[in-house]
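User: Fold both of these, please.

Assistant: Here is the first one.
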Amino acid sequence: MQMNLTQKLELAFWDVIIYRLSRFTLVRKLLRLGYSMVDNFDKKAFLKVAAGVSLAGFLSGFGFTLIFAMIF
């Protein structure tokens, strides 16, 4: 079976995802939580989650920059 690189990468990606979903319950619980948030859409709860994720991303990026600057 001949495939190009992108097809091989896609196949490998889905192999990993399917394995993770079938083996680990944490991923399934997180997906179930995400689906319940979408089904019962609450604007305030969504904004709280979005703000928390944004803040965590900003702080991790800022912290990584500081650590990187201290090392090099």
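And the second sequence with its predicted structure:
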Amino acid sequence: MRIRSTGLGRQELIGKFDKLSRAGDRHVVLSIRTTHPVRWHVRVAMDRDDIMEMMKLLFQGPTLSYMVDGLWRPKGPEETLNY
């Protein structure tokens, strides 16, 4: 996973999902571990509304077609992202 932030300028972080856990009755915590150029542990606490919004984004046309295409297309070389 590649992560960018306006606070980091043009710097790009490389990381992976670490775990998903419950935090009480109201939140699920998504943990991401960055590995390059720094080792950070980033956590996002999401409530039910946040999770529903994420699911809507996952099942929209462009994202859904990207996931389906990935099942049948071979993985190509990495490219520089411009977002």
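Residues 26 and 47 are 6 Å apart (CA to CA).
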